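Note to self: keep these together.
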Amino acid sequence: MLRTLGLMAVLLTGAACADEAVSIPAPAFDAPKVAASGAAARLETAVVAGGCFWGVQGVYQHLKGVKNVVSGYAGGEHATADYESVSDGDSGHAESVQITYDPSQVSYGQILQVFFSVAHDPTQLNRQGPDTGTQYRSSIFYANDLQKKIAEGYITQLNAAKVYPQRIVTRVDPLKGFYAAEGYHQDYLLNHPSEPYIVINDLPKVRNFQRLLPALYNARAVTVAGSK
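Structure:
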C-alpha cells in the first residue's frame, strides 16, 4: 500500500523516481577471490538492504557469479517477518536481498560496488525514491568480521573520495537472520517489467548496471524460480 501511494504522488507531481547511478572505484580492500577447482563451488552469501527489494533483487540477478537472489527481510528483533508486518515500519526489519554467489567468480567487494553504484542511493536516510520508512533503509548485514571490515572500509573510502554530494548513511549491522519474502515478491521485476513502479524506479537501475559496470553484468538473469 505504501509503495502504491508513493508512486501515485510521484506521478501526480511529475517528480523523477529513478536513482541516479554513480561511477565509483572498486574497494581498496576486498576479499581475495577463491581459486576455482574441479570440485563443486563453495558458495557464499551476502545480505544487503537498499529500498524496495524488487529493484535490488532485479539488479543482482544480473551480476556475474551470482547463483541466486532472494527477496526478504532482515535487521529486526522478531524471529520471523512478513510483508504486512514489515510494511508497518514497526518490526525493525528492512526489505533486503540475500545474494548467493561463487567467490571464485565475484568478490564480496564487487557485490558492494554494485550496491553503492547502481542498486540504490546510499545517501538517502530511511527512504529510496517514493518509499519512506526504516523498512527502506540502506543497510549491509555482515555475516563475519571480514565482511564487516570490507563494508566499513569501503564506506570510509567512498566518503573520503566524495563521490556523492552527501555522506553515506548506510548502516553496517550484524546479520541476525534473513527471512524470505512471500512468493509473489520473488523475481518481481522479471515477471512485471511493464508495471509503472518497475518502469520508473527499477529498470533504470538495471540499465545503469549494464552501462557503468559492464564487466560485472550478466545479460542472462538468474531467477529464484530457476534455482529450485
